[in-house]
Amino acid sequence: MELNFITNSVLFDVRESVAYITLNDPAQMNPVTAEVMRDLIQCLNYCERESDVRAIVLRGAGGNFTAGGNVKGMKERLDKGINTTKSGIRSGGEFIMRLKTISKPTIAWIEGAVAGVGMSMAMACDFSIAEETAKMVFAFVNIGFVPDGGVAYMLSKAVGPARATELLMSGKRFSGAQAKEWGIITEAVPKDQLEETVQKYIKKYAQGPSVAYAQIKRLLLSVNYQEMNACMQNEVEAQYVCSITEDHREAVNAFVEKRKPVFRGR
Fold first, then answer.
1. Is there a domain that residue 239 lies in?
2. Rg (CA), the chain
3. For residue 144, is it within any domain?
4. What predicted TM-score, i.e. pTM, was given to this entire model?
5. CATH, residue 147
6. CA distances from 113 to 179, 199, 254 (A)
């Protein structure tokens, strides 16, 4: 089975029982918008219902995974007085839950920059393999937002509340190697070994016992992630509260103007 199609920002390609989902706006570092989320959900729907798809690979085009949300788009909406936060967060939550609960093995192929909801996407995959030098950041707080895409839940599970608090509240950058050390991702390798390493995962999980994999995923979800959906529902209201603050507007303007924001706590 071979299939290939492309939307405005997502390339979907199925080869040899493996579905490759590629965020495909490299000029903008593959931003994740509500429209992109809808396209990604359609890709996952196809993968779930087609028995010939036995593994799923998620990556970004042009050497970066994704820089997360489209901050320039946020500024345009702020300037126009348009607030789409609730619908956007709901779309993101739906995609992350589809990614986390899909019965097929999922593999994140991580290069370059990974920020914001891109970290949520990476952590929602079963296996995340990154360059050691990948630049990662839970960037939500840097634009006056709270973490979304279930990342507060997943990160707390992965690294414990103390480090999760530090990473989410500081908004500091860290490397792929550090992410591996802390248990955020599966593996970090030198750049020149990344493709070979990812291909090993693809070969193993596309050719393995698919029914057993699906049942293992179901068992792990029942043990570890029962409250994740409730967490993401809470994100909708929390993010909306942040979206109407002066601090969020200031942070977005500062990002576009390439300066440091001045937060005033309101």
1. yes
2. 18
3. yes
4. 0.90
5. 3.90.226.10
6. 13, 21, 20
* Residue 112 contacts residue 136 (beta carbons within 8 Å): no
Domain count, the chain: 1
Rounded Cα distance between 246 and 22, Å, is 35
Q: Say if 264 falls within a structural domain.
A: no
- The confidence band for 155, taking pLDDT boundaries of 50, 70 and 90, is very high
Whole domain around residue 16: which residue ranges? 3-192+209-257
- Write out the E strands in 98-194: 106-110, 113-115, 127-131, 135-137, 173-175, 187-189
Predicted confidence band at 6 (pLDDT cuts at 50, 70, 90)? low
pLDDT digits (tens, 9 = 90+) for 102-138: 999 999 999 999 999 999 999 999 999 999 999 999 9
Does any domain span residue 187? yes
Per the structure block, which two tokens stand in for 41? 């959900």
Exposed/middle/buried for residue 22 (C-beta within 10 Å: 0-12, 13-18, 19+): buried
Structure tokens at 240: 């909306």
> Which tokens go with 22?
């590629």
Tokens of 28: 């903008």
The identity of residue 109, as a single letter, is W
Cα(46)–Cα(40) distance, integer angstroms: 10
Angle in degrees, CA 223, 43, 94, rounded to 5: 45
Residue with tokens 């702020």: 78
131 CB burial (10 A radius; 0-12, 13-18, 19+):
buried
Tell me the per-residue pLDDT of 202-219, one tens digit each, with 9 for 90 and over: 999 999 999 999 999 999
